[in-house]
Amino acid sequence: MNKIKIGIVGLGYFSDDFIRLFKMHPGVEEVVLADIVEERLKSSMEKHQIKRGFLGFDEMLEGAPDLDCIGIFTQRHLHGPMVIKALKAGKNVYSAVPIACTIDEIKEIVDTVRETHKIYMMGETCYYYPCAIFCRQKYKEGGFGNFVYGESQYYHDISEMYHDFQHTLGKDDWRMPAGIPPMFYPTHSIAMILSALSNQHITQVSCLGLEDHNKDNIYGAGKNYWDNPFSNETALFRLSGGGVMRINEFRRVGINKPSSYITAFYGDEGSYECSVTQHTFQRGSSTEDGPRIEYLDELINCNNYIKDKKAGTMDMTKDPCSVKYIIGYAPVHDVARLPEVYHNEGPGNHFNSHPFLVDDFARAVTSGKLPPNNAWDAARYMIPGLIAHESALQGGILMDVPDLGDAPSDWERLYK
Ligand SMILES: NC(=O)c1ccc[n+]([C@@H]2O[C@H](COP(=O)([O-])OP(=O)(O)OC[C@H]3O[C@@H](n4cnc5c(N)ncnc54)[C@H](O)[C@@H]3O)[C@@H](O)[C@H]2O)c1
Asked: Which domains are delineated in the chain?
């Protein structure tokens, strides 16, 4: 197996765990770093014992021509142009979510991947969330029958993110990027449901927004790069198979973790539901053996949640909402498919989805096979949100959602 050399761009909060994991992966020869902030570059190189570092993305592309991969972890609205530039420079690209923030950029990414045959993979953490894995597997086995309706959401109150946006150093007020339309970050919510329905895409949307007048002054005309007035957006999407999906992207809401989850995934034969940390699957009365309920708490919650609950050490009035219970693997995770170095990984955030993403990308690059969350998937997770915001700005009118099609059928898939 050829080993890869990857240059990580953007040394903020999120990339740190990925630098560590890329360094550990047996398919990776070297990790190189870049940030425009010198202190971040220095401290990250020291922490991870990295030999080569650059003061910016362009400087890295120019100064390290031997890199075959670039990992993009800059602010969310900067991804598109960087991804295109890296692909055109002949690199394979891993990018944190989202793929890009305009339809033109997304089209260019899809076209460039088709032309260059380089690997593009978006690091959709929720693809490896336990609820999404369960729904994907059950749907594939036929347990749901035909999909009829689903609900998922990403709830992250903006007050919890002040610090994240203030961390970004720049010439403008931190509120300018913070006020990004919620539907410009729909990929967690959409991916959890759509990745189960791999033969379907979104065709139409109607979306309503909540105008925000909070004293933190983030939303409204002139207050952010997008003149976005909404902190919360609720969209109803029509799917190509006829079903309907409701997505909430809320940045002003009094609710705690888990932040991204599926609350309902209904088929005509069976249904999954979740409330906080209680997960169930029910068979409908139309099925051969009639109604039946399965309790899935010990499959879908993470291992330390299950352990603490069994030990009776959980305070059920507080703990189920706690961040500590979206940490680490869950029994539904196929840990055995990962390289051994990741098997005993300590508690990792986002349900320890990061090792799966790093492994998918490394395998895709070294094998040339198409990974999950490729450019075509990522486009289907993002474009519907961009149109949803347009619908919300026009009072919720029903709009058609463009689709960039399936990935080429002659490109061998990493997983069947
Ligand atoms: N669950 C998830 O999937 C998840 C969670 C958190 C963050 N994210 C994504 O990860 C990305 C990074 O988030 P973060 O919180 O670390 O952001 P951050 O603002 O802390 O870090 C971004 C870094 O990029 C650097 N940067 C900007 N332009 C650059 C350039 N031209 N060259 C080199 N470096 C440059 C900045 O200086 C900064 O250090 C975001 O896109 C976010 O959407 C995803």
From this structure: 4-125 (3.40.50.720), 127-400 (3.30.360.10)
